[in-house]
Amino acid sequence: MRILRGLVLTLASLSLLPFGFAQKSSLHGIEVNDMDRKVQPCDDFFEYANGAWRANNPIPPSMTRWSRRWQAGENAKDRLKDILEAASSEQNAAKGSTEQVIGDYYAACMDESRVNARGMDPIKPWFRKIDAARDMASLQEVMAELHDIIVNAPFAFGSQPDPHRPSWVLADVGASGLSLPDRDYYLKPEPRFKEAREKYAAHVAAMLKLAGFDQKSADAGAQTVMGMETKLAQASLDNVELRDPAATDHNTTFSQLREMAPHVNWEGYFKHKGIPTDVDMNVDQPKFMQEIDRQVQQAPLADWKVYLQWQLLNSVAGSLSKPFVEQNFAFYGAYLAGAKEMKPRWKRCAEEEDQLLGEALGKKYVEKYFPPEAKARMQEMVRNLLAAMREDILSRPWMSDDTKEKAMAKIATFNPKIGYPDKWKDYSQLEIRRDAYFEDMIAGRKFVEKDDRDLIGKTVDRGRWGMTPPTSDAYYNPLLNEIVFPAGILQPPAFDMNAVDAVNYGAIGVVIGHEISHGFDDEGAQFDFLGRLRNWWTEKDLKDFQARGACVADQFDNYFIEKDIHHNGKLVLGESIGDLGGAKIAYLAYQKSLEGKPRPADIDGFTPEQQFFIAWGQFRGDEIRPEAARLMVQSDPHPIAKYRVIGPVSNLPEFQKAFSCKADAAMVRPEGKRCEVW
Ligand SMILES: [Zn+2]
After folding, report:
1. Which of 142, 204, 474, 671 has the most beta carbons within 10 angstroms of its beta carbon?
2. How does strand 281-283 pair with strand 165-175?
3. Residue 475 CA, ligand 1 centroid: distance in Å
4. How do residues 74-121 score in pLDDT, each as one tens digit?
5. How far is CA 504 from CA 18, 70, 497, in A?
6. Strands 623-624 and 65-66
7. How many whole angstroms from 622 Cα to the centroid of ligand 1?
8. Is the peptide bond before 161 cis (omega within 30 degrees of 0)?
9. Can you give 379-429 as a three-state secondary structure string?
């Protein structure tokens, strides 16, 4: 499934815990050795909770962020490796069986000498096809074919539930075709963006040169690409505007699409895709489509050819021979994100299979690594957290009974998904060969694209998952009002059967609370109990809610990562409401779970309440490379980990009380600046 821009809200670092099971004396508490006890919790809670771990565990060269949680995510890939090695050594796997598909893909991907020997041969037929186009009409036919292999330039075409009738799937035409992380990279005047543009142009030229261009045409080609993409960037919404669901809500008929971009051959495109022209459709960014049209009309055919060749090259660079892979890493991995070296080839192969054949690999993963009892415990946790959210909303003094009633209806329709899908995708028709890695990758992409396209114009299938089972993450989808926790996140340090409840509520509990709170953040709150983009708030309540959000946005606007670089409060608002609400209701759920029971003992000198907050600091906290932090602050709706830890706790009176912080402590926001949404 295509991830909907701005609509699917991930946790991007979650964990799930089973709660409410008996605490035995052998259960452990927080990781005391990870803490930096020289620091006071009320001065710098991030350093206090996990400073020693970060000091003792430098970021590995191939990673850009590191913590126990990231370590667990990488460990899960070791498990994938075991599965893939076993499958690829299976000699007699039946054609089309899971073992054959994932095993042969892995064997082909791991055959690096063959990949290197082929050089750029695998994409030569595509380059020739692009070169052979006599006019824009025939080039557009090639463009439609490129979309079949997920080279989505300059627009993307896929499925999306109708925001006004979410049980029905629309065709969605989205903006795409930029290769820097977001549109601001093309436009902002600050020196670091200017430098990124220069490095990007040099990178495009280097890639074109590897693909056979001479130096002069490679340099000229890079300038052409830069020019076209810059114009597309100018016509794009920025990443804050993209968080507004109304900004991309444009129900469009085929004839309106034709008026929007009359020089694009839409009849030909829809015919190629096998989609009838009377399909229900949404166009995310009409202004962007108008810019495409302008360029189709005005840019020389030769410019379009080099643009599409670059887009193809960039999209498949990781699957070509070593020089392409290394050049690609040098720009995106090293320069933009700060990684010091590439991940080993086996891991890159496993990650790619997870993307393209995720439910074949995932099926094997959950058979081996996801105990059924984990699911039952998660279900119970989610129930407890939803009950806490219900109670919390009903106790909000600023919200009217009318709005509360609508909120209750929304909580009642929340659909939790845990572990893995009930029904698996069928890969048996997929043609995967041991000796043809590039072609396997293309077959995988075609599968993913068709699997998505086939949903268009039908009733929504609520059984589908937007993440694969081994993924160490979670998400909320407001159109389906579902919270989804793949098996990959249900492991320590997020979810730990051997940890006390305080620790589990502080880690996976806050993650569950975070996803639930996404249903009631500035974006999610615009969708009603049926997932419709429809206001259910009274005017006064909505104003109050927005003012509460503005407090959080202002808080994060003042969180700096470097002297002149700070978070964009409006960009990280949804995630930050999620963290604040998540911590609050997880704490509430934990308190409720203790009702009628003897108070749990302190462990290592820490009260249960302190353990809860330290668990959050230890689960969420990570070390990040400066390049990756800059990239996140510009492009990611998630704040960096340090502020995800101290941002929420410094608003919570429960935290202040747990650590007896003075009113003027650094980790206590002053009265009047303290934010409370839920
Ligand atoms: Zn989130």
Report:
1. 474
2. parallel
3. 7
4. 999 999 999 999 999 998 899 999 999 999 999 999 999 999 999 999
5. 7, 17, 8
6. antiparallel
7. 17
8. no
9. HHHHHHHHHHHHHHHHCCCCCCHHHHHHHHHHHHCCEEEEECCCCCCCCCC
Tens digit of each residue's pLDDT (9 = 90 or more) over 267-325: 999 999 999 999 999 999 999 999 999 999 999 999 999 999 999 999 999 999 999 99
Query: How many angstroms is it from 13 CA to the middle of ligand 1?
Result: 8
So what's the pLDDT on residue 10?
52
Token duo for residue 539: 């005017």
Centre of ligand 1 from the C-alpha of residue 430, in Å: 34
CB of 462 closer than 8 Å to CB of 415: yes
Q: Which residue has the tokens 């980990």?
A: 641
Question: Which H or E run includes 217?
Answer: helix 215-234
**Ligand 1: distance of its center to the CA of 41 in Å?**
25
Q: 432-473, pLDDT tens digit by residue?
A: 999 999 999 999 999 999 999 999 999 999 999 999 999 999
Q: How confident is the model at residue 6 (pLDDT cuts 50, 70, 90)?
A: very low
Task: Report CA(125)–ligand 1 centroid distance (Å).
Answer: 42
Distance 640 CA to ligand 1 centre (A): 12
Separation of alpha carbons 447 and 451, rounded Å: 6
CA of 468 relative to ligand 1 center, distance in Å: 17
CA dihedral 455, 459, 463, 464 (to 10 degrees): 20
- Dist. CA 106 → ligand 1 center (Å): 32
**Tokens representing 93?**
């796997």
CA distances from 52 to 48, 483, 658 (A): 8, 33, 22
pLDDT at 571 over 90: yes
Q: For residue 255, with 0-12 CB atoms within 10 Å meaning exposed, 13-18 middle and 19 or more buried, which class applies?
A: exposed
- For ligand 1, the distance from its centroid to the CA atom of residue 455, given in whole angstroms, is 26
Ligand 1 center to 568 CA (angstroms) = 16
pTM of the model: 0.94
List the one residue out of 473, 485, 427 whose CA is nearest residue 87.
427
State in Å: Cα 438 to ligand 1 middle.
34
- 16 C-alpha to center of ligand 1: Å? 14
> Rounded distance, CA 208 to CA 229, Å?
16
pLDDT tens for 518-539 read: 999 999 999 999 999 999 999 9
Tokens describing residue 340 = 């010091």
Q: How far apart are CA 475 and CA 524, in angstroms?
A: 12
